[in-house]
Amino acid sequence: MKKLFILPILLLIICSCKPKSGESQATDTRSTEPKSEEWIQLFNGNDLEGWTIKMTKHPLGENYNNTFRVENGMMVTRYDQYESFEGEYGHIFYKNPYSHYKLRVEYRIVGEQVSGGAGWAIKNSGVMFHAQSPESMLLDQEFPVSIEAQFLGGLGDGPRPTGNLCTPGTNVVMDGELYTQHCINSSSDTFDGEEWVLFELVVYGDSIVHHLVNGDTVLTYSKPQVGGGSIPEGYPYPEGTNIPSGYIALQAESHPFDFKKVELLDLSIGKK
What we know:
Residues 1-34 have low confidence and may be disordered. The protein is mainly beta. The strands form two sheets. Strands 1, 3, 4, 6, 10, 11, 13, 14, 15 and 17 form a ten-stranded antiparallel β-sheet that branches. It has a seven-stranded antiparallel β-sheet with strand order 2-5-16-7-8-9-12, with no helix packed on it. It has helices at residues 2-17, 25-32, and strands at 40-41, 51-55, 68-71, 74-77, 90-94, 100-109, 124-131, 147-152, 164-166, 170-174, 177-179, 183-184, 197-204, 208-213, 216-226, 247-252, 257-266. The chain has one domain: Jelly Rolls (Sandwich). Helices cover 9% and strands 36% of the residues. Strand 13 and strand 14 form a beta hairpin.
């Protein structure tokens, strides 16, 4: 008799645990689905709309010797109109500042360095971020106060990683300590040829920054701040000031580069 009573009770419990037809299972699944990512194409593939050029010794907006241009759907830096490089370091700034974001830059190094370029600038470029505005740079200023993710190519004689950190007018914290040396190498591979390299930044304001090369995290640091020996005269923020946001700029330092993709995912959207 006991078994006869137990069976209906079990059936009642099982039925009561089932969701009603059309009830919340589908709703729960939808609530856990990731939202689609809306990447902003900073470079539109056609022209330099939305970008502002600042070159050393030249006024804002002057594209000296057509250094920055668009060719074959790529933003490129070229030196075919130079007789010799004489310190005309160039930066092309995107129009909007950002604080929390992911940035993707797909680049390759091509050709030869122009005559007169510095030895350290062979196969050397980068993306500056958390940078001062181009309008605030001095006429003869070589580099904006910023954090630089440095792009290097191999020279065929040993390791020369890319995705490194350089700090014009800035310092960062690594492993709990303030780092004041100008450049710090990443753990990336060396790329000796003209292959495409995918570089990514993950930036959380004045907190954590990650560098990735071809999908691998190669460098992490935190607390970008004003400091070091390259602060321009009259810069309004004292050493130690945290840098929570700023402009993004690509470099031209005397070696030709191609940039096929420059896109950004704004992580601050929806933040309170």
